[in-house]
Design goal:
Layout lengths: L4 E2 L3 E5 L5 H9 L15 H8 L7 E7 L7 E9 L2 E8 L8 H15 L5 E6 L4 H10 L2 E12 L2 E11 L6
Parallel strand pairs: 5-6
Antiparallel strand pairs: 1-2, 2-3, 3-4, 4-5, 6-8, 7-8
């Protein structure tokens, strides 16, 4: 069961079949997927199978406007070890630079700490992904590591930055 999380402007809810078509254009876009661990999706079927996979080991939310409408972001959380969650997120390009990432990622992290009792939340980003790195820094995450040539992706071997925040540090 994916818990609903409310923010002032959005509801974070579990992903549904009807979300596939709204999210697909972003996940097909090579610019949007540049810093992901995989390349763009080539077909709707491939994307739907990936997005709706309930067995992947984590949980998926979509952010939808409280006033109604299509998803504006996808967020995930997975437990890496007891008390430690990794998060990921993608705000659809048409909705970028509107504070959606900060509002929704902040709400997810608050939920993980306060409602679920995690003690640590972390994220793994490509150092070249400036918007994502700025978001984590604004939210109060600390850049804890720079791993060189740590992950082979569709764009080659990439460095990664690890960002973390502890429950007692969380400012929100």
């Amino acid at each position: 069961m994916i818990p609903r999380i409310e923010t002032p402007r959005f509801t974070l809810r579990g992903v549904e079949e009807g979300d596939v078509d709204a999210l697909l254009p972003a996940f097909r876009d090579s610019d949007v997927m540049r810093y992901w661990s995989r390349g763009p999706f080539e077909s709707r079927e491939e994307f739907a199978a990936w997005l709706l996979d309930r067995e992947w080991g984590g949980r998926t939310w979509v952010a939808v406007p409280r006033a109604g409408g299509d998803p504006v972001a996808r967020l995930v959380a997975s437990e890496q070890r007891p008390g430690v969650a990794e998060i990921g997120y993608l705000v659809l390009p048409a909705h970028a630079r509107r504070g959606i990432g900060g509002e929704c990622v902040g709400a997810l992290v608050t939920h993980l700490f306060r409602a679920e009792g995690y003690r640590r939340v972390f994220a793994d980003t490509d150092p070249r992904n400036t918007p994502s790195n700025r978001l984590l820094q604004r939210l109060g995450f600390t850049r804890e590591a720079h791993l060189r040539s740590a992950m082979e992706t569709h764009i080659g071997w990439c460095d990664t930055w690890l960002w973390g925040v502890l429950a007692d540090e969380w400012p929100h």
